[in-house]
Amino acid sequence: ADGENTQGESSEGWSVTRPLVGQRLEEMTFTAAGSLSVSHSCEPRRPHTFLFEGLHPNTGYVVILSNVCQQDVDTRIARFKTLPRVLDSLRIVVLSGHQPPIRAVGAANPWQRLHKVACEGPEVTVALHVGSIVDIVPASDEAAKCLTDLYSFTRGARKDLETRARQVLRNAYWDAWGRHDGLRKILGEVGSHLPIFAPPLDGNLLRPVEAASDGATEDRNTILKIGLDVYREYQRALWHPLTPEGRPDVRIDARDDVARLKAGGAMRNGVELSTPSQDKEYLTHSGTRSTATVEEWHMHRYGCICILALDTKGSLLSKGGKATSLLSALQWSTLSQILHDPFNKVIVIASDIPFVLDEAVPGSTADGMPVSWSAYQDELHNLLEKLFKWKHAQYPAREVVLLSSGPGFGTTGDICDHELGLSIPIAIVGPVLGRVCNPKRWKLQSTLAGGRFSYVYRNPVDKWNFCMVDIDLSASQHKPNVEVQMIETEVPPGTTWAGGVSVGFALADSR
Question: Does the predicted model carry a pTM greater than 0.85?
């Protein structure tokens, strides 16, 4: 259904437009033009993608289910707003981590807090997930147990075990996305979602391993393949068609009859239609799907604002112990193209591990995976040098923002280039819901590259948290306005997770 924006009056009498997520259905005005019904039979217990073409720009839409129980009709409602023809501002909510405690926290649920913030503030355009959106560890462990000694079974039994492991990983998404009301409402109503590469497997399965027996290698390769398939079914499908061939399950032409006939007549007469302005304004580019390598990075352009979600695990999965860098050659090539695009004014780069964060107390995560880019000093220096040079070339008309997940606390800060005299805002977020950790293990300020670069973080937030990034290109002709705000939620005393870990004692990695 196509819902028109309604106007609300503030206490001072000013007329304001409420975001789509904050509007009550009873107060909306729906139009027949542009509304449509879709009847489609879907295979149960599998995600499906629907691609709508020809929707009106800058228009709010409401998705309502039918032929289901009344409770689902009332509660499982999705909302989205199409982008305008030309975009000059963007609000991004940055999220990481979903690991519910043993007991529900009720009104203290931070996903509900996020929903409330989205209802009251400006329209959220993008929800950028820089960490996992499911509780990885229990599902990953159970799936791995299903595939133990897989090589010793017959071919038919192997397929049954693989199917069982796949269902276990899918169950993790069903629990988080379908049964956790707070997260489900965020996914269905707040912005478009861009998840970073975070397969539903813990680090022990992702990290490179020494040569092992053929049986152990087969077990690991099988769980990796299943984990990647399930990741693509759910998280990648949030921004990319589901099938390997790039086709959605259902494609719907939502154009009106006049537009459809005009396009059909032009094709029959050999007339080349001009590219709509929104097609030039918005662009998505991503790593190609391959059986030999893992390239799960993606880039999204919103007018003069570009978001690049990096893949720091693909090289390790593709090359194993031979990997010498976090990013693949294709990612570096894409970054170079972004930096050479004359239309980009703001570049937002997202990573699943912090760009700059050193350990005050030496140690490592239990899975042996890198905890920050600091483990790859040369690559980090190369990245920072490229970004600062790009910003300096047309300063103050350009800006860069670095966003990442963290080890269990949130903070904002700046990275400084003392050679060029510039700084870049940076934020570490998470968990939205999950174990928090004591930040004393980490250095909140340090220098690198022989003193050329330094970073300083503000007081860390050892509470549940997420981050709002507001980018405005219209405030000034010569300088984009970028604001980064950390929003926190108190963790109720006595909150406990599986394993008996309570608030205040967790040093676990929240990724």
Answer: yes
